[in-house]
Design a protein that fits this description.
The protein has about 140 residues and is mostly helical. Helices cover about 60% and strands about 0% of the residues. The protein contains 5 helices and no strands. It is elongated. One of its GO terms (molecular function) is transmembrane transporter activity.
Length: about 140
């Protein structure tokens, strides 16, 4: 746990330092960015990681695209881990009566169905509440 914490702190510090050095800017309205390359009314802005990668490796290099694909894979695996681990964690907490008892039962396919349904509902509410988009197009457009 200490090693994971140290790695997280190091990565956060590194990304923050690179973002400050490369003058990374993210705003809600793309037209507010001074010197935005392209049409700010229709072109999306790059993510922070994409801007840093473009500043470090160049916007169309192999290293840039490698970093974008690697970032997408990490995000996909992180989402998969949440969907695998959350129902099991809820089951353990329900066993000790820290969560509702219904989350402890397994479904017909030996999965924690109630926990999976709860996670899907909470994720949907968060996407709706914060006007999020969970589409693959955002990941693909990040490299533009």
């Amino acid at each position: 746990m200490a090693a994971m914490g140290a790695i997280s702190i190091t990565m956060f510090s590194g990304v923050t330092a690179l973002a400050m050095i490369s003058d990374t800017r993210v705003t809600e309205n793309t037209c507010d960015i001074i010197g935005f390359p392209g049409d700010c009314t229709s072109d999306p802005q790059r993510t922070v990681i994409a801007q840093i990668a473009a500043a470090v490796f160049g916007g169309h290099s192999i290293a840039f695209y490698y970093l974008m694909v690697t970032t997408a894979l990490i995000l996909i695996l992180a989402a998969n881990t949440a969907y695998n681990g959350f129902p099991l964690l809820n089951s353990i907490l329900a066993q000790h009566r820290y969560m509702p008892r219904q989350l402890h039962t397994r479904g017909d396919r030996l999965a924690f169905s109630n926990g999976i349904i709860l996670l899907a509902v909470v994720a949907g509410v968060l996407i709706y509440a914060f006007d999020g988009s969970a589409g693959l197009s955002e990941i693909l457009w990040a490299g533009r």
